[in-house]
Design a protein that fits this description.
- The chain has 303 residues and is α/β, with parallel strands linked by helices.
- The protein contains 10 helices and 13 strands.
- The protein has one domain: 3-Layer(aba) Sandwich (UDP-N-acetylmuramoyl-L-alanine:D-glutamate ligase), CATH 3.40.1190.
- It has a 9-stranded mixed β-sheet, with helices on both faces. Strands 3-2-6-7 form a 4-stranded mixed β-sheet.
- The N and C termini lie far apart (39 Å).
Length: 303
């Protein structure tokens, strides 16, 4: 199955208690596509970049067999930039600078060859743009969506219209509470699923993830890493691994959804081990399967 990924491409200036990494390739769609590329080779991207997005950056995406024909390059502008500093616990961060640049006028145009994509992954962008993308797709088999507090609070009605057309919704625990208006995550899940998406994943950072379906709740653990250098993009990397597994297996059952959550968690655990997308650039399938098995072993009880 083909995947269409629509979201931001960016350059990040990242500071953590363990180092810094300026001019780091980032953006929601970048992390999603790179992560998913380890499971499927049929990935198409739609986004916008400036003249500072070089052949080297495109080359990284091409090296993972990601189709970039849908990425608009604005020669007289610069790529979206974000700068942030993480606190010692790595769970909170301060945004130091945001420069939307060409992303401020992003008008997603889906090329004709992408419009029959079977899986549509909508990264964290304006919900009005997410709807515009869906209006250009013929008959997707599955729509997966992400969002953030900014859109939940700033464009709640537009977001709800998007959610009516979404099959799988992925957000974090604080976003779930804000969107639902309820502090209890189980109640929040029920409220959010009533908005449209029948499959909901609530990410809880270092505490794992929760999967909600008609058949119940699945709780996935977080991987106990000794070294976490940079959590930037971990959530998008999770989404890419999750989507990639579903694409690879070609079926959506409760079992495969649960496996997808574990594969997504495995990919996210790799992401945080180095700055930016560096760790995602040199993985191999054996590493991924070993990490997936480690997730299985974390909660296994024999006898």
């Amino acid at each position: 199955m083909s995947i269409l990924v629509v979201g931001s491409l960016a350059f990040d200036d990242i500071e953590t208690p363990f180092g810094s990494s300026p001019d780091t390739l980032g953006g929601s769609s970048t992390y999603i596509a790179l992560s998913a590329s380890y499971f499927t080779s049929d990935i198409n991207m739609v986004g916008v970049v400036g003249s500072d997005f070089t052949d080297e950056h495109f080359g990284l995406l091409h090296s993972r067999n990601i189709n970039t024909n849908g990425i608009q390059k604005v020669e007289d502008g610069k790529t979206f930039r974000w700068a942030g500093r993480y606190h010692y616990d790595m769970n909170t961060r301060d945004t130091l600078d945001t420069q939307l640049n060409v992303f401020a006028d992003f008008d997603p145009h889906v090329p004709a060859e992408y419009r029959s994509s079977e899986i549509v992954c909508l990264g964290n962008i304006d919900p009005e743009l997410q709807i515009k993308v869906l209006d250009q797709i013929t008959a997707p088999k599955m729509v997966i969506c992400d969002t953030m507090n900014f859109w939940i609070e700033g464009k709640p009605e537009e977001l709800k219209k998007t959610l009516e057309r979404v099959d799988i919704f992925i957000i974090n625990d604080s976003e779930a509470r804000i969107l639902s208006g309820d502090p209890n995550l189980v109640k929040s899940a029920r409220i959010i699923r009533a908005m449209g998406p029948k499959i909901l994943i609530i990410k809880k950072g270092e505490h794992g993830a929760l999967l909600f379906t008609d058949n119940g709740i699945f709780a996935a653990p977080a991987y106990p890493l000794e070294s976490i250098y940079d959590p930037t993009g971990a959530g998008d990397t999770f989404a890419g691994g999750f989507i990639g597994h579903l694409t690879r297996c070609g079926t959506i059952t409760d079992l495969e959804l649960r496996k997808g959550v574990l594969y997504g968690s495995a990919m996210a655990s790799f992401c945080v081990e180095k700055f930016g997308t560096e760790r995602l650039n040199g993985l191999d399938l054996l590493e991924i399967e070993d990490r997936y098995q480690s997730f299985l072993d974390l909660s296994r009880i024999d006898g």
